[in-house]
Design brief:
The protein has 775 residues and is an alpha/beta fold. It has a domain of 337 residues. The protein has a 6-stranded mixed sheet with strand order 4-3-5-6-7-10, sandwiched between helices. A two-stranded antiparallel ribbon has the order 1-2. Strands 8-9 form a two-stranded antiparallel ribbon.
Length: 775
């Protein structure tokens, strides 16, 4: 067997091929480089960090009249919707209606100064209000009479605001990315159904007949059981709901079919909540104004205090925090998750990018300041954000006109709020949360994209309906994490074969055709997108090609180890037959065929030599690992790769070389070098070093192949073999004429690291061929 020249000899023999490319050892990225990246220009980093906390510094100096007009229209439009919605949601939270107005005012006012989204409208929302109501009810049930409902809700806003603000300040917003869209959609859909079911009894005036905070399925059953006891409230509630949908659908029809009236139809649709509330409040006033309160035939909102009646520092009660500690994680998740999801959606829709960390800071500050006004937890609203976006909002400052609308309502309209029918407020809530329910078409889209994620979505909806929102959220989160871990621990990995594909090339006499090899999964190894009628050829004799689809780290290292070793043992032969080994020298866990069974011994011999009609198994000589998708390699991955090499070499009874292609990360290269890979020091065979890249060469045929092994060692042939194609002759001549302008692409000190898979397979096949010849 010819000995492999040293790397120094290779450098000398390359002669003019190497220009200014000298090194004493394989280049390894230093540990200090990571620290340098973190500490580079710290002063500028601190300045940018502080500046990022106040985004309005960037856009406010550019504010102009055109922006102001757009913000004014959008802000007033949202305000007309926010006032009735906030009072409705306050009732959902178990609070007096004025607390919804307090939360609305603080939300839109403070958020404008810290927001990175122009579209999001922050304030009371249905799901958070429902969760607040459940927490208030649970604390009051466990500690009756100790705290007022508004104190509990305000304390909840304080703690959730502190947590979310801390997450944003520490720049941990990336944690939200671990929660996928189907999980969010699942508990949002389940929550919306729960809210609608809980408001339906109030719609029919039967809410007092049973507990509407029970599990959703029980509320639905009991609602049907008690429909016969419906009161006059049903006339107001059902009529309000029908009126809301009639206006919405009519305006949508006009917008589609009569473009001339599109703008008018849009603003008519926007005002539908206020219009319905005004009409039915007048009707309610007419039938109750002359009656004593005890004889009112319908349930009305009654007194709403004028102005800000509860301004003051929020009480910090450790006993209260302990009482609701078990509910805080879910409340915080809802607060940040709903907001980030909405902000990202409208950022994509309107072609700008939000900063999740800054958004967390914004809602954290909003809720902290809101506690001074006795506000309860506020976050982004989907329906109001959509309305704000469609109204032509230009900057986050549109929240200030909205806040002005709330202030006017608090100081000028509270007397009129007295006669608002509660059934009409329930209709507004049901109408609003209906938009949060994922449609059957959207559910089917989840199924098409990922059946496993659809199952998480479906399970989250069902569990929320039959238990509670908390359990639904926890289920979706745990299921999503388990799915993520499963995908990391059991990633895709493919054993590859070869297919020749035709490529058009530009030649001197016109367009020609050449062929090149591509590597695709071997038939039967996995589901492949390639044409099943195309035959995939096996890799070169003695070579196995394996492609990773995920980082090679501790959760999946053993999985890849087993896949490689099992495949090689199944598809290649032993280096030394078990039957030819003394029984005492055989390992106990792999002792081969029964020594007394001639049939078993003959079968093993037939597998080695190849039976009639069956391919002969080759001895494994080289393994090619495609690391193009491997972004991270940890210590466990390196150790498992070392173990894999040992197992394969024991099976082959000789050295097996490992070639790597597509390595991009210097840290992955560093890990492989630490495991003894890349340099080839353990190999006794000849390996092709990295191909060089021609510089300044005009490619008139096709992409030039890398220099041949003979070129590196000074055995260049002046005449091409007779069976060489004209294209190869042309490329060889071009290459020989341009030797003075070429340099190695990959370090000559790491000849087993290749820049692409084709070059790695070519090197591995040559090595396997030489090893087979020498044996």
């Amino acid at each position: 067997m010819p000995s492999r020249p040293t790397n120094d000899n290779k450098l000398k023999r390359l002669g003019k091929w190497v220009i200014g490319y000298k090194e004493d050892e394989a280049e390894i990225i230093s540990s200090s480089s990571y620290l340098k990246e973190l500490t580079q220009n710290p002063g500028e980093g601190v300045k940018n960090y502080v500046k990022s906390l106040f985004p309005f510094i960037t856009w406010l100096p550019q504010y102009n009249l055109q922006w102001a007009i757009g913000d004014l229209i959008a802000g007033i439009t949202v305000g007309m919707v926010l006032v009735p919605q906030s009072m409705s949601y306050a009732r959902l939270a178990g609070l007096a209606p004025e607390f919804g107005l307090y939360s609305s005012f603080v939300g839109v006012l403070i958020y404008a100064l810290f927001a990175s989204s122009k579209d999001v409208s922050i304030g009371p929302v249905a799901v958070m209000s429902l969760q607040t109501g459940r927490i208030v009810a649970d604390v009051l049930a466990a500690h009756p009479g100790r705290w007022a409902p508004e104190v509990i809700a305000t304390q909840l806003a304080l703690i959730c605001g502190l947590i979310v603000f801390g997450v944003g300040i520490l720049r941990l917003g990336w944690l939200v990315e671990f929660i996928p869209v189907p999980a969010v959609a699942g508990f949002m859909t389940g929550s919306a159904i729960s809210i609608a079911a809980g408001q339906t009894p109030a719609l029919f005036g039967i809410a007092s007949r049973f507990n509407t905070k029970d599990a959703t399925y029980l509320v639905i059953i009991r609602t049907f059981q008690n429909l016969k006891y419906s009161t006059l409230d049903a006339a107001f509630g059902v009529s309000s709901l029908v009126g809301l949908y009639a206006i919405k659908w009519s305006c949508a029809y006009v917008e589609r079919n009569y473009p001339k009236y599109k703008r008018l139809a849009f603003f008519t649709s926007v005002c539908r909540n206020a219009f319905i509330l005004i009409v039915f409040t007048i009707a309610s006033w007419q039938i109750t104004v002359h009656l004593p309160v005890a004889e009112y035939p319908i349930s009305v909102l009654k007194t709403v205090p004028s102005g800000f009646q509860h301004i003051g520092p929020a009480p910090f009660d450790t006993d209260l925090i302990s009482a609701m500690a078990g509910k805080l994680p879910v409340a915080t998740i809802i607060l940040l998750l709903e907001h980030i999801s909405i902000a990202k959606s409208f950022g994509r829709l309107n072609n700008y990018k939000i900063d999740p960390n800054q958004e967390l800071i914004a809602i954290g500050v909003t809720n902290l300041v809101g506690t001074v006004f006795s506000a309860y937890p506020a976050t982004g609203s989907f329906s109001r954000s959509a309305l704000k976006s469609k109204s032509g909002v230009r900057t986050p400052l549109a929240g200030w006109p909205t806040g002005l609308c709330v202030v006017i309502a608090l100081y000028a309209l509270t007397d009129a709020f007295y006669f608002i029918p509660n059934a009409a407020l329930s209709a507004i809530i049901i109408h609003a949360v209906a938009d949060l329910v994922v449609s059957p078409r959207g559910s089917y889209a989840f199924w098409l994209a990922s059946p496993l994620e659809f199952m998480i979505f479906f399970a989250s909806v069902v569990v929320t309906i039959f238990t509670t929102i908390e359990i639904g959220i926890y289920l979706s989160l745990i299921a999503s994490v388990l799915l993520l871990l499963f995908r990391i621990a059991r990633p895709g990995g493919h054993f590859l074969g070869r297919v020749k594909v035709a490529v058009e090339t530009q030649e001197e006499d016109g367009v020609g055709r050449s062929f090149r090899e591509v590597f695709v999964p071997i038939n039967g190894s996995s589901n492949s997108l390639t044409n099943p009628t195309v035959k995939v050829e096996a890799p070169p004799a003695g070579v196995v090609i394996y492609r990773f689809e995920e980082s090679f780290i501790y959760p999946n290292a053993s999985y890849h180890n087993s896949a490689l070793v099992d495949y090689i043992k199944l598809n290649t032969r032993r280096g030394k037959e078990a039957a030819a080994t003394k029984l005492g020298d055989r390992p106990w866990n792999d002792c081969g065929p029964n020594r007394w069974s001639k049939k078993a011994i003959a079968k093993e011999k037939a597998l080695v030599e190849g039976e009639v009609g069956a391919p002969k198994k080759d001895l494994i000589r080289a393994v090619v690992l495609d690391f193009q998708a491997v972004a991270n390699l940890d210590t466990t991955g390196v150790q498992n790769l070392v173990d894999t090499r040992k197992e394969i070499e024991r099976f082959a009874d000789g050295p097996v070389s490992f070639h790597f292609s597509g390595i991009i990360s210097p840290w992955v290269q560093r890990g492989l070098l630490a495991g003894g890979f890349g340099t080839g020091d353990r190999s006794a065979t000849l390996s092709e070093v990295a191909t060089v890249v021609p510089q300044g060469l005009e490619l008139t045929k096709s992409v030039l192949p890398g220099p041949r092994e003979e070129d590196f060692h000074g055995i260049s042939s002046k005449k091409a073999p007779s069976n060489q194609s004209s294209t190869d002759e042309f490329n060889d001549q071009k290459r020989r004429n341009s030797q003075d302008s070429c340099e190695p692409l990959v370090s000559l000190r790491t000849p087993y690291f290749h820049f692409d898979l084709e070059e790695a397979v070519r090197a591995a096949s040559k090595e396997a061929r030489l090893a087979n010849q020498s044996s």
